Amino acid sequence: MIDRASTTPALAAIIYNPIKVDIDRVRIAVQDAAARAGDIDLLWLETRVDDEGQGQTRHALEAGATLVIAAGGDGTVRAVAEALRGQDAELALIPSGTGNLLARNLGVTHTSLDEACSIAFSGDTRAIDIGLARVTDADGDLREHAFLVMAGLGIDAAMIANTRPVLKRRLGWLAYVDAGFRALPRTKKVRVGYALDGGEGNTAHVSTILVANCGNLPGNIELIPDALIDDGMLDIAVLQPKTIFGWLMIWRRVTWENRVLRKSALGQRIIPMTERPSRTELTYLRGATVRLTVEDAEPFELDGDEFGEIRAVDLSVDQRALMVKVPAGR
């Protein structure tokens, strides 16, 4: 859903990760797009190891910026969005790095710098949900983080923690495949307690449980095809394969059924005819709030970045609390 057409900002802030982007190329492309859009002042702010973008975003807002452009990977985008939550300013994306998860789900290009800059200044504005994760870490301390795409507990978090930085820089998201193969043999199922919307608790032994604000992953993988980014709901994917065959069934489901068959009326009629009587490898749930608990501290991830080990997390949604620039007319 598009909320309104673009307005020209008087001041735009560019918050960039110097490790992820070629700042000279970005500077030229942004300046050209800003000149085409009108008389716009630009404020350039660099992220640091100890501040991924939250502090820079607050500084930009205090300076009067009504457009904040995040130039970097998923971590930079998540940090900037966290500080923009509920503010009267818009987020634009110049994707870089490994996943570009939010950009992929919004249709913002991650292959053309000039096009991404054009969307930043001339695209439409869409109000989207922002997820909130209130975490109890291994020491019992509480902390809250925002997320845009998904939170994960189990093998996906172990895989992200296991990803080799050198491969990540060279191969992008394919580095996670290497990490997955290395994590899989050592990863046991996790006993997870979960409750939706404050209701009765359940337990499950899972390989991973993912709580999503939107459902598309790199490689055109539609993990959770019904997830919408502005519906005020969280979509949960519970993965419980018992064997390698179970993993293959999950792969078939997300790449063939979700990506291909669901796209047509004929395909939707075919799906029930090919289903097995019981499909427990991948279960979908939905709720406005989700609470997850584990007996022993387990790795946890948000938007593809590791966030240490946790014992519990309460997840919720701040509906339509973030304004994001998207391609015009999309």
Automatic annotation (TrEMBL):
UniProt cofactor(s): Mg(2+)
Annotated keywords: ATP-binding, Kinase, Lipid biosynthesis, Lipid metabolism, Nucleotide-binding, Phospholipid biosynthesis, Phospholipid metabolism, Transferase
KW Ribonucleoprotein (keyword) present: no
Leader peptide range in chain numbering: none
GO BP, sorted A to Z: phospholipid biosynthetic process
Pfam families: DAGK_cat, YegS_C
Matching InterPro entries: ATP-NAD_kinase_N, Diacylglycerol_kinase_cat_dom, Lipid_Phosphate_FormReg, NAD/diacylglycerol_kinase_sf, YegS/DAGK_C
Membership in a protein family: Belongs to the diacylglycerol/lipid kinase family.
Name of the protein in its database record: DAGKc domain-containing protein
